[in-house]
Input
Amino acid sequence: MTDLMLYHASPSRSSVTLWMLEELGQPYDLKLLSLEKGENRQPDYLAINPMGKVPALRHKETIITEVAAICTYLADEFPQAGLNVPIGTPQRGVYLKWLFFGPGCLEPAAIDRAAPRKEEPRRAMLGYGDYDTTMNVIAQAVAKGPWLMGEQFTAADVVIGANLRWGMTFKLFPERPEFTAYAARIATRPAAQRADAKDKALASR
Ligand SMILES: N[C@@H](CCC(=O)N[C@@H](CS)C(=O)NCC(=O)O)C(=O)O
Output
């Protein structure tokens, strides 16, 4: 057994952390859960993540949940992978902004598109503002490339990139040229390819 154990359902949001682990290049173990069978709602798993959600990551004695927190944690804990922007680097703030933008803005925009609210919510009330602004901000962020932080691929690309790919697959995000070009760059990454292949194999079990 390794120091890292990912509690994973295939495919799901935990696929983002599977990709992150492949980018990291550290050995890890997988504990596969079936959401259909409700294994995420059993007491043994609720003791790991009381939210009953995947992913959860165990690193030695520490349990981390929430996709973006796991990606941030892994990048900082294994800096030799070059996936973080370390504390003390001026650009660290921008890097953290994108890590939080994923669950804070991009994902809520997708969910509102998938399940529209009955009443039009007031922009000021919504933490993410509005769909069109969110799309424009992300399009501008990925337009120059190759990555959000420029030449360096980081954990923020895993969080934002996975969200964009997923959102485009389910037609929740438009296929803007900036998005498709960014997704195409991601698709060439060996770690992303390995994660996709692993997930496909696990899902067909
Ligand atoms: N905010 C969580 C969301 C995780 C999440 O919603 N996971 C889904 C799978 S995509 C899940 O576990 N659903 C099972 C359930 O809620 O019963 C994160 O970022 O990790």
Observations:
- Residues 92-114 form the longest helix (23 residues).
- The chain has two domains: 4-82, 92-191.
- Residues 12-13, 35, 40, 52-55, 66-67, 103 surround glutathione (CB under 6 Å).
